[in-house]
Amino acid sequence: MNIFSKIIEGFKTPSPPVPEKDISPELMQKIRSIQIKTGHMVTDLMAGEYVSAFKGRGMEFNAVREYAPGDDIRLIDWNVTARIGQPFIKEFKEERELTVMLIVDVSSSGEFGSAGKFKNEVSAEVASILAFAAIRNNDKIGLIVFSDKIEHYIPPKKGKAHIWNIIRTILNFQPEGRGTDINLPLEYLLKIHKRKCVAFLISDFQAKDYEANLKLAEQKHDLVAISITDPRELNLPPVGYIHLQDAESGETLLVDTGDREMMKRLTAHERKRRENLKKSFYSVGVDTIEIETDRSLVEPITRYFKIREKRH
Questions:
Q1: Residue scoring higher pLDDT (290 or 257)
Q2: Is residue 188 predicted with pLDDT exceeding 60?
Q3: Domain limits at 208?
Q4: pTM of the model
Q5: For residue 131, which phi and psi values (nearest 5 degrees)?
Q6: Which one of 14, 34, 103, 300 has the fewest CB atoms closer than 10 angstroms to its CB?
Q7: Do both 80 and 177 map to the same domain?
Q8: How far apart are CA 126 and CA 82, in angstroms?
Q9: What total of structural domains would you count in the chain?
């Protein structure tokens, strides 16, 4: 299906999301549920995985102590040793604090789901898991919300109240745009973050021609792509004639789901799109995590963290 892109005027930050007082009780309960559930997921299932997978910016001096047998002689502080008259060594600790940016697609193609959740809802839960993991380790979290424009930006901060704001923003956001332009958030990231950060790009990637900016962002930052998919995008049940509508462009297509040859072609087309997507990420060195709406969210994230830890 075709996706049409639009151009935004500069990189201005749009108006903020709906204030908390205007949120319905049902949505408020949903936000609280996600916050509680994802918080438990991080505590129970991902303890230590995030820290091991994402290292700090380097090592910084902490203190000196007396030399003990087995210590690395290269760490001897010769000035202190000469002054006191016995060997002392330098101790270092990892500069742990990171800046983590969540880049979340809120385009209309996310308003689809056959397993009880829309893809946009799954994106919000994934973002929440990552936010809790980062905050638990005292990292800063920021948010870029996009469609075919930069919809909203929250600068990186720390604290649980900040996570609450991020979750509420993603779940309650009413985007102005309908399409997907992945070039825009990548360019925005490069523009506003001069220092290296960890960036999670969460989308169903129903877009084209963004490989050049993907490569630039990966060269500057530690970029991880998280692909959200639904099982019905790959396999439609045989229920006769149905109208398929592209949520972003509004185009419709009449499909006979009982036509096995047509279903094979549609399935083959979607498989090919996903394969090309993975090849595109791999070619520019971007790591990927694949999330399906009908399966565990934590498992693929934890698996990636473990793989990353071993690799580094």
A1: 290
A2: yes
A3: 20-52+96-311
A4: 0.73
A5: -65, -45
A6: 14
A7: no
A8: 54
A9: 2
